Amino acid sequence: MPDCAHMISAPLRALSNSKRLTILRWLRDPTSHFPPQRDGDLVVDGVCVGFITKKIGLSQPAVTEHMQILADAGLVSSKKIRNWVFYKLDDEQVRTFLAALSETLEIPKPR
Amino acid sequence: MPDCAHMISAPLRALSNSKRLTILRWLRDPTSHFPPQRDGDLVVDGVCVGFITKKIGLSQPAVTEHMQILADAGLVSSKKIRNWVFYKLDDEQVRTFLAALSETLEIPKPR
DNA sequence: ATCCTATATAGGAAATATCTTATATGCCTG
DNA sequence: CAGGCATATAAGATATTTCCTATATAGGAT
Known about the structure:
The structure is a homodimer.
Chain A (H helix, E strand, L loop, with lengths): L4 H11 L2 H11 L1 H4 L13 E2 H8 L3 H13 L3 E6 L2 E6 L1 H15 L6
Antiparallel strand pairs in A: 1-3, 2-3
Helix pairs in contact in A: 1-5, 1-6, 4-5
The structure holds a DNA duplex.
């Protein structure tokens, strides 16, 4: 396995902001935090920017930027449907990141 | 279990800086990255500020600040011996943090 | 006491992050 | 095509982070 240091930097920076961490917690379990959507399923498609904006109380451009940072880090994926953009936690990538972080921080196994 | 959100924010901010992440990787396995110390064992006591400063190529005050951020986040512990200060990865707290982060990011189990 | 070494603190400069308002783009409806 | 809605981009203000130099503190040796 190659040195995966740079692979965890972007997610760590993305997670270092408390607003983004809050959003990720919402996306982890969207039906508990958002009302049903007409044009896209909360779980299947993700949560639209407008819902996140309303709930977090920031301007819409600020939320867009936060979501792009999360997407660039690979922690969420986005899907455009009509003129909505739905963001969804990327379970696979989250697990990969968590594994890489453990690998980076935990004491190396003796051999 | 209480909401442990704020418990992971400080470590995440501490980890979001690449210099600090590099230092943590060194501290994870100090004997592979630093020469033996006269007045404190690399593994038992930790690594002194001077060694880290020399290796990372920043000013000593910058390193001191980085180490304080890591210590405030609970990721490292410090031990003063004579006029040295040794920093050491806190395995227990690192594991606690990793578990809390997984708890925060992973899909809640159905029940 | 004086000097040398190791680390911490103070102050401030420069870079980066966060956020807002204004505007652009793109899709849908009538 | 005109208008409305959802999101993205642009520009810039403010806040925070990162880093340096200068200085303080503290222990050990001469």
